[in-house]
Design goal:
This protein is α/β, with parallel strands linked by helices. The protein has 20 helices and 27 strands. The strands form 5 sheets. An 8-stranded antiparallel sheet has the order 3-2-4-1-10-9-11-15. A 7-stranded antiparallel sheet has the order 5-6-7-8-12-13-14, with helices on one face. A 5-stranded parallel sheet has the order 19-18-20-21-22, sandwiched between helices. Helix 9 links the parallel strand 18 and strand 19. The model has no long low-confidence stretch (mean pLDDT about 95). The chain binds 6-O-phosphono-alpha-D-glucopyranose (G6P). The site of 6-O-phosphono-alpha-D-glucopyranose (G6P) has 16 residues, from helix 9. 6-O-phosphono-alpha-D-glucopyranose (G6P) binds next to helix 9.
Amino acid sequence: MCGIVGYLGSRQASPILLDGLSKLEYRGYDSAGVCVMSDGVLKVAKAKGRLANLFGMIDGGKAITGTYGIGHTRWATHGAPSDINSHPHIADAGRIAVVHNGIIENYIKLKEELILKGKHFHSETDTEVVANLIEYYYDRFQDFPRAVRRAVAQLEGSYALGILCQDLPGTMIAVKKESPLIFGFGEGENFIASDVPAILKYTRKVVYLNDGDTVIFTKDSVRFYDAFNDPVERVPEMIDWDISAAEKCGYDHFMIKEIHEQPKAVKGTISPRIRDGRVVLDDVNLTREYLENLKKIYIVACGSSYYVGCLGKYILEKACRIPVEPILASEFRYAEPVMGKDTLVLIISQSGETADTKAALEEAKRHGARTLAIVNVVGSAIAKEADDVIYTWAGPEIAVATTKAFSTQLSVIYLITLHIAEMIGTIKEEEYQAIICELLKLDQKISLCLTPEITAKIRYYAEQYFKVHDAFFIGRNVDCGICMEGSLKLKEIAYIHSEAYAAGELKHGPISLIEEGTLVVAVATVDSLFEKTMSNVKEVRARGAEVLGITTENFETEIKKTIPSVVSVPKTHPMLQPSLTIVPLQLFAYHVSLLRDCDVDKPRNLAKSVTVE
Ligand code: G6P
């Protein structure tokens, strides 16, 4: 949450900072600000609301001269979204400027101490405390790096910081603990950022900083220090993906672009891991002996990643005959779950930095469980900490509502399932081969869910239903998991109250909410359960619900006998069917969101990576 960027070079800094922030808005968009060293003073411009407000205020950055500075895009935690609470924050005497991503847990105590020492505060933020604490030590030592070190030693919590000192022109200091931060090497210029897309236009050579790292740099030099303040070498990595991956490329929104990228992304996740007709997971070290003694698998995650876990329960249990429990990371971390060496904890996270998920991972490790992370962002905290990691390789996902990351996480679940089932002998060779065959065609079948015909049909249904106040998603087995994700998509980007239920559970309470015109999205793709779900559909129709059916081609004629509004998707192996079923629900949420005039890519109050509890 919150994005930070820093530039130090010979070009005008503000336009570069604004450009960087535009790639980080997915991290928060309550306000944006920049601070640039301009004519010997720290000049700040900041504005509540979207980056566009700041952009207009400073003429795209042209209005502020100066060749180095820091920028920030905020997701409010301490203090309401307002101009005054926006970053960068300048210390009381105006000598220190700070941008911050994270949370300072002991900021109240520090603030009280600083007030007693004569510092004045203007905002409600924890970040202003950091700026003043550094300035306090700077006043004492007249040594910028030393002041930063002393101040940081007193901070409790998480932080990625970009810091400027008015008295030390041409130098910037960055510090990282538990919030992501990268350093980018340019020619005669250097960068810091929360994420690669912010600086990819300027450099591909980056260092993913470790926790505890401090970087002191000018435009021509850089020194890295570790958590013990010892000088260290940090070996740069070359980013091998292109900036176009983080741009809209002609699409109206990132979300629709990312929906359409799913075939490619899923193929990129699956095909390198199938060799000679078998799943090969080079990245993991799960021995046969370990798997044979495995008593339980937890799948721990938040949001859509958790719904992948809910699907994973059905998929893994069916094929591997091992008990699987999906659990929200925010619950897992405090629930004292029973686990030990014979427990595998699958951690799923697109960003690899979700606070609850990271804490759950640490909890699992503390109890001696083996941890396997499914992560998209390379070099992220969760990827670094887990015993094993399988990257989804979905490329950057910018829209706050996940689509391609979800689909690639699900693809990894299939691969893990086949890997474990084969190792412990719970799957017949014929079945294994049938799934592999369909896995290799999955990308093509996802493409068939994205044809202009299907899109037009969904747009038509979106036009029919976009004014509803409430929606219910019902389905059984894996369709129930897909309903959870479809329902979340609708509520998060179209602001429609929506709930997902196991279809059989409806009559135990929620059916009392069904009235004339309530929208029910019924998902029925599981052959053996089709008729059961249809019975539930009839129950809600009898009470006045409008039903939109999602099914597979083979059921199209049958379902139309009960429901006129139907979208059907191609059929694949039942284990893989969720990868196709989810696509029309993503498109439905997208089109409803557009029709309701919502901000598709940046829905209100949300952020893509949630680094607070
Ligand atoms: C936020 C995002 C969701 C995401 C969830 C978990 O709520 O808006 O799209 O599913 O966090 O994020 P993670 O990065 O851990 O998958």
